[in-house]
Amino acid sequence: MANVVVIGAQWGDEGKGKIVDWLSARADVVVRFQGGHNAGHTLVVGNQVYKLSLLPSGVVRGTLSVIGNGVVFDPWHFRDEVERLSGQGVKLMPEVLQVAENAPLILPFHGDLDALREDASGAGKIGTTRRGIGPAYEDKVGRRALRVCDLADLEGAAPQIDRLLAHHNALRAGFGVEPIDRDRLLRDLAEIAPSVLPFVAPVWQTLATKRRQRARILFEGAQGVLLDVDHGTYPFVTSSNVVAGQASAGSGMGPGAINYVLGIVKAYTTRVGSGPFPTELDDEIGQRLGERGREFGTVTGRKRRCGWFDATLVKQSIALSGVDGIALTKLDVLDGFDELLVCTGYELDGKALDHFPASARQQAAIRPVYERFEGWSESTQGARSWADLPAAAIKYIRRIEELIDCPVALVSTSPERDDTILVRDPFRD
Ligand code: GDP
Ligand code: IMO
Ligand code: MG
Hints:
- This protein has helices spanning 16-23, 75-87, 108-120, 133-141, 158-175, 182-196, 203-212, 246-249, 284-292, 311-321, 360-365, 391-404; strands at 4-8, 29-32, 41-45, 48-52, 64-67, 97-100, 200-201, 217-220, 260-266, 269-271, 305-307, 309-310, 325-329, 339-348, 351-353, 367-374, 408-412, 420-422.
- The protein is of the alpha/beta class.
- It has 3 domains: 4-103 and 199-260, Adenylosuccinate Synthetase, Chain A, domain 1 (3-Layer(aba) Sandwich); 108-196, Adenylosuccinate Synthetase, subunit A, domain 2, CATH 1.10.300.10; 265-422, Adenylosuccinate Synthetase, Chain A, domain 3, CATH 3.90.170.10.
- The strands form 4 sheets. The protein has a 10-stranded mixed β-sheet with strand order 7-6-5-2-8-1-9-13-17-18, with helices on both faces. Strands 12, 14, 15 and 16 form a 4-stranded mixed β-sheet that branches. A two-stranded antiparallel sheet has the order 3-4.
- Helix 2 (75-87) runs parallel beside helix 6 and helix 3 (108-120) packs across helix 4.
- Guanosine-5'-diphosphate (GDP) is lined by residues 8, 12-18, 40-42, 44, 298, 329-330, 332-333, 412-415.
């Protein structure tokens, strides 16, 4: 048996969706275990483009797809995404899509609060997706959240709804915003419930059965390790654990179910939203990376910040998530650069530093130390075998493997599903 966890090893948007879609041909189940519809995963299959935020990327191939308890679940977004995919010919029945009954709900006032806080933060704003992710996770750990199972019994959930609204109405009053209309909320929840309930299941049980049957389970991470609430560039992070260890708690499977961790790594670096980014390029090279890589957010349409590959950060992410192998994506975006730089360490107050520090002040103050590489003029776009790559590109990849202390399992050379070089199959027993 080989179960695989896929995680982003940078600041998200590494190409997880493409790789999960590609791997899901070999998987029996695909599971989301954290995050919510802040994720934006783009899949390209022939002339069809699929954009997924909440649904696991396995749905496009019809692989059994599970939204685990670690996800924060917006029922209205769920209905809209299911309908949008249905319009693209992906029919989603409860036989192929299950939602954990104990996943916390994202409600409309979570988005309100997310936006109110961002607008009040001025220069200190996080640059969230404004989709209510942080407030919904706060209510979960505050033990006042409504959960997916409550949609089946709104009357029984009345005391919990009262607790939740009392908390939010106090916050809203602080912002000078009107209180939540309880009757309207209940009407809206009653109206959306039938769109969700057919998919709801004790997914831990489905997964336990699949595990006994020795099915291949693929866990699909959202965001990236540097956005992890513990290990990322705090406070400029998302509100969930993103590291591979979360696959277990966020799905209800024991850690022994994880056999291989695949880190998705972009051949350069991007970030959307605020926060430190040591190798960021504010010049025409950064501009060129953004244009060649089409670096615009799937969820918010925001321009992504771009910079050189940071081997020190990726090495740290790999250690934090126990990554066994990486998928190196968007290699083709580097075609045609005369020279490529890779960060191999930092300098802080004149001293060398071999890791990314935890202190926000130090994170903002460090300076990258670079190693320089000769670029390549040939095209790698669409390459499907090692032999299709120019020598300079192979040298770049080999040196990255050394610097991050982890082997390359896959290389991706275009958005298209099959433009992928397989070096080692993560599902190999
Ligand atoms: P995710 O959030 O990690 O799933 O990544 P996104 O989908 O947000 O962003 C990655 C973008 O790069 C998407 O538009 C993909 O279609 C595209 N992409 C993925 N792999 C490659 C690749 O190897 N080369 C190029 N040029 N684009 C890629
Ligand atoms: P995928 O799965 C890139 C960023 C936001 C912001 C911070 C907090 O597509 O890689 P949030 O709305 O989560 O409270 O925002 O996290 N962020 C992402 N950046 N890719 C993502 O997902 C992201 N999800 C959240 O831009 O900086
Ligand atoms: Mg994305």
